[in-house]
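Quick one: structure for this chain?
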Amino acid sequence: MVKRGSLQLIVGLLAVVCIAILARLSVPEYRMPAGWSVLRPPEDVHALAVQGDLVWSGGRDGLVAVERQTSRLLPVEQGQPDFRYVKDLLVDSSGSLWVAHQGGLHRRTSGGWQALSLVEGAPSGPATALFQDRSGALWIGTESGVVRYDGGSWRAYGLRDGLAAVPVDVIFEDRDGVFWFGSASPTHGGLTRYDGRDWTAYSIDNGLAHNSVNAIVQDRSGALWFGTGFHDRGGASRLWNGEWTGFSRKDGLAGEKVRSILEDRAGRLWFGSEYEGVAIQSAEGWRTVTPNEGLASWEVKEMLLDPDGVLWMGTTDGLSRVEPVGQ
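Got it. Here's what it folds into:
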């Protein structure tokens, strides 16, 4: 006959075992894909840039540098400003690092850090996007438009000049030298084309999957891709030979909102979503990778291909490093 106390102990042990089994069953088991790794910190990653042997990562909590070959996180260098909400990063043709952040615009040269201000003519307020064109001029997105800096003078463009929407969150120059400016505003977003003379506005009425524009790339065939969406609506829009084509979850995307797009060396297109991981389009079809398969987090905000063909994906919970890609 089992005593009452012993019976309670046995029942308790069985309950613990059952809970452990259920917990194990509820956590998906996965094997990290070959060549994949996760780096934490950094945590929230919104922007990436390569500078020599370093990958710079910027986001909500500031700016950090990672060694490309070893994945070692470097300590914050002396004199580096205390950035918050880094929106974009750019290494220009001279090797200087530009940082667009909530507090404005900074530049890091061999001489140290410099804050660009109204004294020099730089835009005031938060800087939202960075791009260097083929002539060497720098374009800075702001909450009120876009500013062009040719190294000596600044020129601002806004809604009165022809921009379709502000703030300007993404800037791109295509192979024909045409500029594209996208706004990710959930209420007043849109896309603007500027050929140096004429401004053309695009929206859902002209072929965009959603008016919030988050990313712009051009693939090797010459097609332009626009990552769009807000919350659970949006998709990818392709402009090719004057025709628009939309892509959504039913076509293979991981999620309806596309945060980032990248083409790797093998010609595969990677589409980062906000909630559902990353989708990869190749000649074999579509494939989705999520945290259950080794991705750092569900939201992929930024993607970058370094000179060695290594893919870096910035997420809301760390960096995913994929090596090799397209080798």
